[in-house]
């Protein structure tokens, strides 16, 4: 099965602590690397966990709070110092374009590579990126400022060759790629062997959703239906539900309710408030509602 994995670089909120860095993740789909959010210290976390800077193609920024973007200009600068030549694509709310351009003009003048900005409308669910391996969609979130999550969907692969059948019919290796792409096989006597008899179904496609920062938002459920892995912010426990409501954040229990209602296969909670030195109470709270819940931790890699 092709690679689809998520590595956590930071799972804290608001400000760095000695226990957790601000939000950042790396998504690797078939060796194509994307970053979600880039809080302060992200490039140091990449060095710690041996994530190659130059492999990054795209960076997706959810919103303009510092714990999600303060590390971006430093990372961009370091890539230039390391000799990057390939373009880097930044997807972020449209209000960030002027800020980013000012930073680039001030700190990165004369860089050898291009930074391409793609403005996002945060209040809609739309396709914002596509290649042969995946699609990326925005998820409209409910926060104090314009904010969106991101939905990564793997594209189907070609079917597998049924080697016993192709060997039985004496099909040469040079023709197998045509069969993978849908061709039938014609025997010397004119008999047609249909493609479905020569192939096996491809592996099922996988999906990952990133929801941070947001108040509990039932309108997300149709977009998250049957998701393989849901990352949902869980800044607070239920005892702080009023604070969560005032600050447009979620509790661990609310994250679990979302996972349960959208029939997610697995939930990962994160974006923990600095007040929690021990996140086990948050994990237990979520698992009471949705047992297949894990807690984000820095350096953790989840393979789908």
Task: Briefly characterize the structure.
Helices cover 23% and strands 27% of the residues. Strands 6-5-4-3-2-1-18 form a 7-stranded mixed β-sheet.
Task: Give me the secondary-structure topology.
Elements: E1 4-10, E2 24-29, E3 32-38, H1 42-48, E4 56-60, H2 72-81, E5 88-93, H3 96-107, E6 115-120, E7 127-130, E8 134-140, E9 148-154, E10 160-161, H4 163-168, H5 176-180, E11 185-186, E12 192-193, E13 199-200, E14 207-211, H6 221-224, E15 229-233, H7 241-247, H8 252-261, E16 267-270, H9 280-289, E17 293-295, E18 301-303
Parallel strand pairs: 3-4, 4-5, 5-6, 14-15, 15-16, 16-17
Antiparallel strand pairs: 1-2, 1-18, 2-3, 7-8, 8-9, 9-14, 10-13, 11-12
Helix pairs in contact: 8-9
Description:
The chain contains nine helices and 18 strands. By secondary structure, it is an alpha/beta fold. α8 (252-261) packs parallel to α9. The model has no long low-confidence stretch (mean pLDDT 95).
